[in-house]
Amino acid sequence: MALSRRKMLKKAAAAGGVAAAGGGLIMAPQVAVGQAPAQLTGTQAGRKFKAFVRHGTGASVEELKLLAIQPREVLVRTQASAVCYTIVGGALATTPVQQASIPNHSGMGVVEAVGPLVKRVQVGDRVVVPGTPQCGVCYQCLHGRADWCQFLDTAPAHPMAEMSDGTKITEQASLGGLSEIMVVPEEYCCPVFTDLPAEQLTLLGDTVGTGLAAGRDLVQIEPGWNVVVQGAGPVGMGAIQAARLQNAGQVIVIEPIKARREIAMKVGGTIALDPNAEGNGLVTKIRTLSKGITDRRFAGGRLTTNAVPDGADFVINAVGSDWFPPKAEVGPDPTAILPLQQCFEFTRAGGHIVMLGVAWRGNVSFNAAQFSNRGRTFYSGQQGGLNMLRDIPRYVKLIEKGVIDMKSMVTKTYSIEQTREAIQAVGDRTVLGAVITFV
Ligand SMILES: [Zn+2]
Ligand SMILES: [Zn+2]
Prior knowledge:
alpha/beta, Quinone Oxidoreductase, Chain A, domain 1, Rossmann fold, seven-stranded mixed sheet, six-stranded parallel sheet, 14 helices, about 20% strand, binds zinc ion
């Protein structure tokens, strides 16, 4: 009788003496050398640390006392956390909050303690903690959409510390960041083995990492493509660099803030347009730029009377609405609906659109026939479709090689005491990358 492949493997293992007492096992489950062991190093409960806390009707830097960490949690001594535009409104609001919490949703640092069930990291590891977890076993992770990992829905929101008056403190999005300590489920940890500066690495966990992912994970930019990036904030800057990495033909940047247009040109943009200066001519301008220098589409071709619109191969929308009056140049539409409408108009039939903005309000409408029949594809994703355990180590290598310019993304660093100033600057749009760094 023919043996199945599995039985043959079993027999071979038994003959070689590999199978231990179990006899039928191919190999006993064991921790490989170098793999992070589950170890209990103490919960460090009672430890004092500083954090920026949103509580009552305001926010302030407070000294907190750490509570015990849970079996599957990781205690990270924060080295850096970049302020995200999306948290500005909540962090600086004066409306009363029921639950005191540490704002933000990314950071990086060094693991100082792990719960007894933690396997992914070990004490001493440097880790990037992105806003999106990756459990590896949920429906979305198993279907290639780790950016929609369902662990996000069940991640614990229990208090990790308390104030001197006993007020319990949670972390926004299960991880916070504007704090000397983060306590996070291991599903949020991506170990990185590098000496790169913390203020650069932390940007991989949120804004710049999102833009980088958008150029490859949802739509893979083909060499020579005309790529349009709307919005050159930290997310857009990642997208511009992704387009450069993928050898895009043109990288057309649309950004109202002059200082950002200049950085965009430095990191990969081939032309940077001011939407205020272009006004109603912007769509025509993009189509003309995408067409190139001749109307002849191919050798011997003739101009067509078919009204197939010209346009870019790929448009990445990374526009954050002007929810706070900027102290820098204002965009043409504070709701950012206009750029969303325009990204459809910019894109050629059969082209691709990725939307990275969040917190939209209002509605957008498209020509039905164009929407239905012109073959444009739309994608949106958490963090640009980031597959963090696969992508972040890859980006680390590319930063080390100098291919990704992360240094230009960090335009100002702040101490924990200056957190409010940093958040305000992000809301004002007077800095590109505002990073809190910790000693
Ligand atoms: Zn963010
Ligand atoms: Zn998952």
